[in-house]
Amino acid sequence: MPVTDVTHDLDALTLTITADFAAPVERVWDVYADPRQLERVWGPPGYPATFVDHDLSEGGRMNYYMTSPEGQKFYAYWDIATVDQPTSFTFRDGFAVDETFTANPDMPESHQAFAFTATDGGTRATFRATYADAASLQKVLDMGAVEGSTMAINQIDDLLAA
């Protein structure tokens, strides 16, 4: 299980997940840089992701949806802010109303910072989400963000081993 720590702080408005992978930083980066690989691990098991747009560059946009086992689609987007390949990138992460990928104003948006650091055994990944207010963070916690993100990240080991 690569996830080693999950913390949320309602005062700092953050949710931070730490994971360790037995692969070099560049290999972990490749998971996010390649939409076909990212589709295999983004979202919890049973909710496969489909990236219809994937531009991991500053100013780029990623549009995707996850499909539930019942066939319901959940749309979302990433607006890429910064990229420091292969060690980090930041983006605005939000839910979309539908296949137009227009931001859903009724759902929380977050600023995400993904960082990959070399370790003796591979890579330590830190995934930090920052929300505008405690209510937004609490809403995603209530939606199961910790459980869903942990399950999604734990899928990466199998992909890296393949």
TrEMBL record:
One Pfam family here: AHSA1
InterPro entries cross-referenced by the UniProt entry: ASHA1/2-like_C, START-like_dom_sf
Lineage: superkingdom: Bacteria
Domain annotation Activator of Hsp90 ATPase homologue 1/2-like C-terminal: ranges: 22-160
Family: Belongs to the AHA1 family.
Protein name: SRPBCC domain-containing protein
